[in-house]
Specification:
46% of the residues lie in helices and 21% in strands. By secondary structure, the protein is α+β, with helices and mostly antiparallel strands. The protein folds into two domains: 2-145, Beta Barrel (Butyryl-CoA Dehydrogenase, subunit A, domain 2), CATH 2.40.110; 149-304, Butyryl-CoA Dehydrogenase, subunit A, domain 3 (Up-down Bundle), CATH 1.20.140. Strands 1, 2, 3, 4, 5, 6, 7 and 8 form an eight-stranded mixed β-sheet that branches. A two-stranded antiparallel sheet has the order 9-10. Strand 9 and strand 10 form a beta hairpin. 42% of the residues are buried.
Length: 307
């Protein structure tokens, strides 16, 4: 459910609301707001994921038409989406300066999607092919030098990704506490043992630390969150969710390892966070560059001007 909501209120919608021309906003946004449209965002390619400047999918503008060719992979809901927000090269322009965005509507000729990969979290991801896929030229909503705008909008997705991880960690803690109260060992609930209580305390501390980072990043939005704050929130919440859900599995013992208990699904689901929306390794580079290159040693951390 959270991933479905992410698809409707995330970066897909914000890209349309910020960058699409007015006629397209009026055409699509009411349907999105009414829940009548399913959206998909298409970034990753077989040979490039985080490396956006090396995307090969290309859109050629020919008068009133635009022709899209290329391949995307590991895409959520592309086989059922009504609108596809596609990061693409425009008119073959090389490097980062050539990246823009085209919106492809369901049923456009030359578009195909197949649910090819089944994730450990239970979702089917698609392989997408554009073979001379034709759309109106106005659907190319970002053309020259659009990459910076697209990645700025993507900071919202990083906060939403973090919120899903935070929610899974909260759910795992709640399941762990329930089990601590119900499960008996040596004549008393396992929650009476110090080892279990320390686990619960550490899980709670990590959850609230992640919440603070995430909320601070979210309130920095104007219109999109501060990139460094969003990166820090995503790194922490992604990794925190893995740790907390893992501890919840441990609390359940052998039952945590079977699918009949929710912590198993939460543990598998948490693993997606640090992979989608920018890997933790890439985001650490972003944060580290900001700190090392921009900190004024006379004033310290306040000089970094986080929003």
């Amino acid at each position: 459910t959270a991933l479905a909501a992410l698809g409707e209120i995330g970066v897909q919608t914000r890209i349309i609301s910020e960058y699409a021309p007015e006629p397209l906003k009026k055409k699509w946004l009411p349907k999105i707001a009414a829940g009548d449209f399913i959206l998909a965002i298409l970034l990753t390619e077989p040979d490039a994921g985080t490396d956006v400047p090396n995307y090969r999918t290309n859109t050629e503008i020919k008068g009133a038409r635009a022709i899209v060719n290329g391949q995307k992979t590991l895409i959520s809901r592309a086989d059922i989406a009504d609108l596809l927000i596609v990061f693409t090269r425009v008119n073959g322009a090389p490097g980062a300066a050539g990246i823009g965005c085209v919106i492809v509507e369901k049923g456009s000729p030359g578009y195909s999607a197949q649910g090819k990969y089944h994730t450990m979290g239970g979702e089917h991801l698609c392989e997408v092919v554009f073979d001379n896929c034709e759309v109106p030229a106005e659907n190319v909503i970002l053309r020259d030098n659009g990459m910076k705008k697209l990645l700025s909008a993507f900071n919202m997705q990083r906060c939403l990704n973090s919120s899903i991880c935070l929610g899974m960690a909260e759910g795992a803690l709640e399941e762990a506490v329930k089990y601590m109260r119900d499960r008996k060992a040596f004549g008393k609930p396992i929650g009476d043992f110090q080892g279990m209580r320390w686990k619960a305390a550490d899980m709670m501390i990590e959850i609230e630390a992640g919440r603070g980072l995430l909320y601070r990043a979210a309130v920095s939005g104007d219109p999109f969150p501060d990139p460094t704050m969003a990166a820090m929130a995503k790194i922490y919440c992604n990794e925190m969710a893995i740790r907390v859900t893992s501890q919840a599995v441990q609390v359940h013992g052998g039952y945590g390892y079977v699918d009949e208990f929710p912590v198993s699904r939460l543990f598998r689901g948490a693993r997606f966070g640090s992979l989608g929306g920018g890997t933790t390794e890439t985001l650490r580079n972003l944060v580290g560059r900001k700190v090392v290159e921009h900190m004024d040693l006379a004033t310290g951390i306040p000089s970094l001007n986080f929003s």
